[in-house]
Each structure stands twice: as C-alpha cells, then as structure tokens.
Write a structure and sequence with these properties.
The protein is built from 15 helices and 14 strands. It is α/β, with parallel strands linked by helices and about 425 residues long. The chain has two domains: about 220 residues, TIM Barrel (Alpha-Beta Barrel), CATH 3.20.20.70; about 190 residues, 3-Layer(aba) Sandwich (Rossmann fold). The strands form three sheets. Strands 1-2-3-4-5-6-7 form a seven-stranded parallel sheet. Strands 11-10-9-13-14 form a five-stranded mixed sheet, with helices on both faces. β13, α13 and β14 form a beta-alpha-beta unit. α1 packs parallel to α2, α10 runs parallel beside α12 and α11 packs parallel to α15. The radius of gyration is 27 Å and the shape is elongated. Bound molecules: iron/sulfur cluster.
Amino acid sequence: MSEKTLYLKSGKCTWGKCIFCGWGCQDEPVQTLEELKTWLDQKLEPVDLLKIFNSGSFLDDKQVDPKFREYVIKKCEEFGIPKLTVESRPEFITAKSLKGMKSDKVHVTIAIGLECADDKILKKLNKGFTVDDYLKAAKLLKKNGFGLRSYVLVNAPFTNQDTLRKSVELAREHSESVILLNWFPHGYSAAFNMWIEGKWKPFDKEQFEEATKEFGDIEKDFDNFVFRPRWPKEMEKWINGATEKELLHPYYELWQDFIVRFFKAKRKNVLFVPCAFRKPYNISKLHRSIRKTLFEVPNSRDIHLVVISSPGVIPYEFVDYYPFNRYDWKEWEETPEIKKKYIEVNQKRIENYLNTHKYEKYYCYFKLDSESYIALKQACKKLKIELIDCLSEETYEKIKNEKNPLTFPSALEDLKKNLKT
Ligand code: SF4
C-alpha cells in the first residue's frame, strides 16, 4: 500500500499545554486559504493513504480554515485517494466540523492522542480533556462514518504497566487502529525538566519492547520523531567553573544518559581526543590539527571522533550542541581533590559508554598526564579493551612543557603513524 505523509504548517496548537509537547511553542505562520491550496496542489499525488499532520488539530478552525478541509477532501476524491488520516483533539470533533469532511469516496480517519485512559493522569499530563471527552468524540466519529485512530503513550510520567493495559484495552474497543508511542519529551516542554531533575527517564529500545510485547499485534513506534535533548534558548547558560557542581551538572548527566542509551555510533573504529578551551571544539587549533591529520590517513571515514571532557563522553556529532558548546572547565582552578573526582566520574561515564558502544579498534590521543587520559586508560583496563596510544612517551617527554603540545608536528606525526597501522 502506498502512502504519503504531509506536514502542514498551521500555527500553534490552540491548547499547547500538554506537559510533554513543544508544539504549543512553535511559531509557525498561519497560512491563507490560497497558500494552503497551493501547498497541497504541489504535494499531492495518487496514493492509497494520505496522512496530513499539523502541530495541533486539523479540525480546529483557528488552525485550519474549514474551507481548506473541504478542499482536501475534494482533492482526495479527484486523485482517487481512498484513505485520509488527520489528527485532532476531541473538542474539535463536532457534527459541524465533520460535516465538511464527509465523503462517499474517501474514508477519513481522525487520530486522537488519548495518551492514557485515566482522568487523574490526563490531568497531571495537562491534556485538557477527559476519557469521557475522548469517548464522546469516538461515538460521534462512528455515527458519522469516520474512523478513529488512537495514540497511547508508553512510559508517560505517573503511569505504570497497569495503566498502559487499561489504556490499550479502552482504545482498542473504540478505535479502528491503535498505536503505542514511546514517550519522549520535546525539548521545549515542561516534562523535559523532569528528566533533568532525575524524576523520570525515557525508555530505551529494550525497555520499550519489554513493556509493549504483551500487546502483540498492535502497531508500535519506538522513536516517532528525531529525538535529542534540546534546551529552550533561555536555559542555555554558560556552565563555568571547575568544581563538583559543574562536573556533575544535571545537563551533562542527562546527555550522558542519552548518549549511552539512545545514540548509535556508526563507525568502525574510535579515536578518543581531549576537549579544547575554544568552543565549539572543531574551530580550535587542536581539533583542526587532529582533523587535518585524519584526512591524511586512509580509511579515516571509519574513525569516530569522541571527546572526553568535564561533561563526559561527547561524540563529535554533538560538539556544537548545548551545553557542549557553552562551558568552560577552568583548569587553573582545579584542586587535587577535584582532579581525583574528575577521574573517578569520567572513568564511570567512559565505562558506561564503552559497555553499549563497540568498536573494532580503540585509539586515543591525549597528553599522557591528563586526567581524561587516566580515566580512559583505567576504564579500558577494567573492561579489558586494548587502547592504542597515538602519542609515544618519547615524543611527549620532549614537548610536554610547550603550549598546546598536541598540536606539535612531532605529536601529530605520531598520531598519523599510529592511525595508519
Ligand atoms: S500534544 Fe497535541 S494537544 Fe497537546 S499541546 Fe501538543 S499538539 Fe497540542
């Protein structure tokens, strides 16, 4: 069956208050009827199923002009598209809004984010409707010949496996189809703070599969949007200092959790490198020198660059994301105690990373007396991983008192030679 999904820009969700959702903050312009029609005409093609998603409700007149809804139906009929799915909150599903979307040729399904069939939890999630509202909408849809698709969230805060069972049972009874979605908070949502504060964590793939396996044939979606931690602009403050408070900053801890459980490394070998004072690291002299050297090595595309620094393990894919591009660990403020703590904390973070990310070869390029190097060395020793030093003791002895020794040609020559082997 062929299908096409269109993402319609139609302003903010009128409700915009669900604690896990950032769509309420989206500043999308509301388009005129003519603009909407042109947009649809450019995108439409004959398919078996057309899905139109907007951030909010397709049946909300404030977001989508009712005349455009009629136009969509007319176009589906013209193109011979037999099935259409759109999304809406229950309060916008009325006899009037459905009237404009009735068709003998197109089966229209309205998807509702029920999330959870429990009024107390819906209230805590700030959904702004009750199970009864959902049921009334379900009844109206059925009476008017529309289909209902229900979204149920897995691992939403305040829920457990019993709540999930209860929600699936109710949704199944009233819907044509049900889909179980893994619960990831959008970066700009209130619930994101729950993760920062350590009150809740998203399920990784294994946990999601375990929780949903009892529902056998029901459709499941582990990762329904490209997810990574995102902070609202106003929370993106510089993290400065070299104390335990900065080392164990909750933002770093959240990223480490994400990097260990959700990030998948795609390259064969890894090269661990230190951070640079200049941010993002990739514009620093050290990182430019390392990357230039990598270009001179055959198969450099197989090498995954991973930085070790006070925030922990930072795959290169994330170096320009907050807070990795907005922190200063001031080495000159380090005490013997914090250096010890740095090694202990980062050794653990590296072990966690290496337990879930496997490579064929493990290279490193550090000053041989740095805390990051010691932490990495100890982690690899504990996990019985062979770590290949790309800087020889002999070379380091000669340059260690120089400024920025890792950018010295003799050191970079060592790096190249070791990577080539
Ligand atoms: S989950 Fe849906 S209803 Fe809730 S704020 Fe987001 S778009 Fe609006």
